[in-house]
User: Which sequence fits this backbone?
């Protein structure tokens, strides 16, 4: 690699945008590409909000990565004089009789330095009377966590990248010849070609289509329906001023973000949906999923029973078989890096993963075993 390498980053979402910014700050020449723009409605980083949490169970890297991301979000908020992380707290409700996941989360939280409190059902009932805690055994509150502005922060990363001298082009990359070693240049949708020293593909649900031999059976885009309900007029109990972000770990995992920016009470079922085409899929929510979510909301938040649906959104996860990320060099192509597999929980880690990827490309660290592509062939 040259003294000042030229790196092309394909995908301007949470992983790609932060990677491009960190590479630029470390002295590389960087060209960032995206087919529809940062945080667009087809991307996994689209939409308004994402959860920031550290509860991840035992024996995993994500609590430590979330802790690093928290510091980086704070650093760049100060630098840019903007707020993206809303520290409403995150409440993890344990509704499952098997609480090994939650018990196993406590030591990683302690080791990572993420503040948390264990709460009994009685403590939660007293603190948040607007919630029906029936069936909830105990909970974990992360007071310094909350939710992130998704689309807005993707745009802010691009703005900082451009201000620092990076080059951005809204253009698509052809899949033709991508799995031929080595890649000499990329063919783009405007009939031009782009030549770089290194190529980082952070294309979310499109990674499997671009690299069918390596990731076609590894990354599966799934359809995920999101709903925003309207609380009663003048009722502030379901806003982020009076309720934390929450997750409810029972037979299904439901999660939600209290009303923010007057957009309504966000609720979703985390159950993985069916296969979905991120480019051409019709983004129409399932009536069956809406019915299930309505029944849950009526049970857990009684005052929200029969609340009107204000908005709905179809997102997608780019799900790997083990829910872990892909952060690795292409197994056959030395100048290609693969970055993705966010699996529904990736956005919060964006700045930490971008920092890691920049160090990998510049030869300052090795890929983590849990994120290598070789795990799928062993």
Assistant:
């Amino acid at each position: 690699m040259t003294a000042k390498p030229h790196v092309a980053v394909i995908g301007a979402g949470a992983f790609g945008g932060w990677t491009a910014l960190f590479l630029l700050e470390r002295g590389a020449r960087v060209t960032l590409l995206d087919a529809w723009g940062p945080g667009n409605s087809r991307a996994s980083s689209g939409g308004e909000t994402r959860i920031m949490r550290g509860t991840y169970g035992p024996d995993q890297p994500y609590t430590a990565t979330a802790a690093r991301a928290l510091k980086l979000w704070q650093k760049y908020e100060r630098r840019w004089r903007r707020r993206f992380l809303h520290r409403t707290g995150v409440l993890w409700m344990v509704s499952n009789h098997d609480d090994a996941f939650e018990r196993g989360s406590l030591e990683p939280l302690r080791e990572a330095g993420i503040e948390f409190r264990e709460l009994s059902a009685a403590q939660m009932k007293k603190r948040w009377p607007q919630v029906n805690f029936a069936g909830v055994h105990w909970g974990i509150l992360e007071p310094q966590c909350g939710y992130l502005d998704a689309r807005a922060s993707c745009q802010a990363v691009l703005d900082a990248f451009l201000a620092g001298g990076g080059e951005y082009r809204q253009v698509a990359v052809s899949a033709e010849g991508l799995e031929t070693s080595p890649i000499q240049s990329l063919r783009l949708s405007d009939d031009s070609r782009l030549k770089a020293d290194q190529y980082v593909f952070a294309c979310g649900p499109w990674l499997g289509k671009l690299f069918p031999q390596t990731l076609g059976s590894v990354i599966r885009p799934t359809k995920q329906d999101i709903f925003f309900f309207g609380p009663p007029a003048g009722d502030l109990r379901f806003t982020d001023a009076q309720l934390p972000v929450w997750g409810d770990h029972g037979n299904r995992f439901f999660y939600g973000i209290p009303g923010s920016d007057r957009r309504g009470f966000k609720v979703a079922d985390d159950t993985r949906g069916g296969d979905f085409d991120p480019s051409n899929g019709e983004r129409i929510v399932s009536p069956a999923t809406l019915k299930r979510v309505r029944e849950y909301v009526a049970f857990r938040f009684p005052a929200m029973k029969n609340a009107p649906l204000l908005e709905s959104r179809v997102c997608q996860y780019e799900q790997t078989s083990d829910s872990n990320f892909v952060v690795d060099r292409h197994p056959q192509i030395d100048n290609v890096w693969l970055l993705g597999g966010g699996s529904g929980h990736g956005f919060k880690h964006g700045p930490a993963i971008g920092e890691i990827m920049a160090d990998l490309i510049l030869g300052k660290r090795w890929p983590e075993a849990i994120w290598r592509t070789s795990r799928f062939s062993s």
The longest helix spans residues 62-80.
